[in-house]
Amino acid sequence: MSETLEFQAETRQLLQLMVHSIYSNKDIFLRELISNASDALDKLRLESLVNKELDVDTDDLHIRLEIDKDQRTLTVRDNGIGMSHDDVVSLIGTIAKSGTAELLSKLRESPEQQQRAELIGQFGVGFYSTFMVADRVTLVTRRAGESQGTRWESAGEGTYEIESLEEAPQGTTVTLHLKPEDSEDQLFDYTAEWKVREIVKKYSDFIAWPIRLDDADAPLNSMKALWARPRSEVADEEYNEFYKHVSHDWTDPFETIHMRGEGTFEYEALLFIPARAPFDLFSREGKRGVQLYVKRVFIMDDCEALTPQYLRFVKGVVDAHDLSLNISREILQQDRQIQVVRRRLVRKVLATLKEIQEKDAERYATFWTEFGRALKEGLIDDAENREVLLDLVLLPSTHSAEKPTSLREYVERMKEGQNDIYYMTGESRATVENSPHLEAFLAKGYEVLILTDPVDEVWVDQVAQYDGRQLQSVAKGQVDLGAEEIAPERSEGFAPLLSWLGTKLEADVKEVRLSTRLTTSAACIVGDAHDITPTLEKMYRAMGQPMPHTKRILELNPDHPLVGGLRDAHAADPDTSGLAETAELLYGIALLSEGGELADPSRFTRLIADRLARSL
After folding, report:
1. Per-residue pLDDT tens for 370-403?
2. Per-residue pLDDT tens digits for 460-518
3. What angle in degrees, to the nearest 10, is found between the helix axes of 28-50 and 236-247?
4. In sequence order, what are the residues at sequence separation of 6 or more whose Cβ sits closer than 8 angstroms to the Cβ of residue 136?
5. Are strands 159-165 and 149-154 parallel, antiparallel or unpaired?
6. Range 345-349, long-range pairs (CB < 8 A, 24+ positions)
7. pLDDT band at 16 (very low <50, low <70, confident <90, very high)
């Protein structure tokens, strides 16, 4: 018996957007169906190698295209792994992945048709592109090793029908009931043999399985693995189409890396750096890794063992010659040969990025805008390549509001007598630029790096130096700016006040001292050299990790009228009414000026209001 089910709400919205002229070029629907069929054949080949009890015939795995001009149908048939009833519901009836809502909002915000088409590619929803050219889509499938099949059908509107079949051929058959030839939005007749041949040659020539048309046995595609051919024999257009096949992106890659490993362990690799970051780059559910083949036999789609987490945006294929097929993902992580390949791939990707940076700084800056935040994670995880990564880093600084700087450029601009590389972390550029911690540095013309990415809070603690120069936070420890030290007799004049403030504020600070880093502000809060920053402390708490409150240091500007007046008032009468409130307000002002959060905002505003009222 068949049953009628509703599409997931977001899937319905997405289908409507796709059907109503999102694409100017609708040919890609066939590429997506062929790619899905190719994946199904890959999976069946792998399953037959791993599961010896699976009774399937793998002698003639192929993809067949069938045209019926009278019925206006185009069918894509494969004898691959197939799907179970539950697979069909989860994979076809819904878009079972995160990010769909984000995709929908971006599609609605994109005014240009081309921009909307490119966004679709980032989310890998290829099957649904069939409704651009078809009024109705029928899918019949049977999973290898199962006896019962499944039939699915939909007009791409609100519902779909699904039923179990007693008999069905192994694999998947997708039949498109094409829109009328005279439809306004149909530029081509997809029952024309010349058009089908053209699409296959353009988009799917590299598919490893034969693609046959109707009853002919001669394949339409060359089936040549691009990674096995010399680079000189591969056109840029072929690389670009292969990238789109493995990444489900619709734009050309930013860079192509074609490499071969020889010696005791041979392999070929064809890697791509995308032009734009995928929507799930920072999602826990986001997949990473390249496709792994062994002697042209597909092993797995997202081989995480071949690329580190910080290079998760790299796509492509690695074909190893001598890797054992009888392996699990856990064993693969520990395989010595895989580790050798991984190190070589990482070095090659980083070397390629370095070469781009040196040849075309503007082009490299576009890459950094998309992937810099992810690349910085390598400074934490990849000590072996840390020096190279430090050269690749681009960071905002006080030198320019528009253009980030490399650490090499920072060092070349360092003022005479400056020994350290200064930086400050914070939640935003505005917060850092307006922080009192920067006052003396800017007054002396010292450049300060402005680090606002969450990952910055972690890597600056891992990286002690660059090019022999220490990385020094302007908000931590004592800083030597070459300024004159506060005279001892002047310090003695403030000693009673500092001691009194330390007692009054002991719940919040561990020390109160005079500052040489302030020029205009009354006070600021700094940490000891090895203290955790407030932002990092907040991040850990947000992740559910208990963190003890870290007391910090209150520094006072001895030249500020408020600090001088507080000293005089304390010297005249330590028990003066309101002196304790002034100390509380001074600490609160220092906390707010660095973007911190008050423990009791309502009490702070009440104290401010009372003081203002008394001054009128």
Report:
1. 999 999 999 999 999 999 999 999 999 999 998 9
2. 988 989 999 999 999 887 776 765 566 676 778 899 999 999 999 999 999 999 988 88
3. 70
4. 153, 154, 155, 156, 177
5. antiparallel
6. 345/259, 345/269, 345/271, 345/306, 345/307, 345/318, 346/307, 346/308, 346/311, 346/382, 346/385, 347/385, 348/257, 348/259, 348/269, 348/271, 349/257, 349/271, 349/273, 349/311, 349/314
7. low
Residue with tokens 């963190």, as numbered in its chain:
547
- Whether the pTM exceeds 0.90: the reply is no
Q: Decide: 326 and 350 in contact? Cβ < 8 Å.
A: no
Decide if 196 contacts 29 (C-beta within 8 A): no
User: How many whole angstroms separate alpha carbon 449 and alpha carbon 394?
Assistant: 10
Instruction: Report the chain's mean pLDDT, rounded to a whole number.
Output: 85
Exposure string for 239-271, b = 16+ CB within 10 A, e = fewer: bebbbbbbbbbbbbbbbbbbbebeeebebbbbb
Q: Which residue has the tokens 């796509």?
A: 315
**Distance of alpha carbon 456 from alpha carbon 219, whole angstroms:** 53
Residue 205, both tokens: 């020539």
**HSE (CB half, 13 Å, CA atoms) of 336?**
2
Q: What are phi and psi of 332, to 5 degrees?
A: -60, -40
Counting Cα atoms < 13 Å in the Cβ hemisphere of 417 gives 7
**Alpha-carbon distance 65 to 58, whole Å?**
19
Q: Per DSSP, what are the bridge partners of residue 303?
A: 290
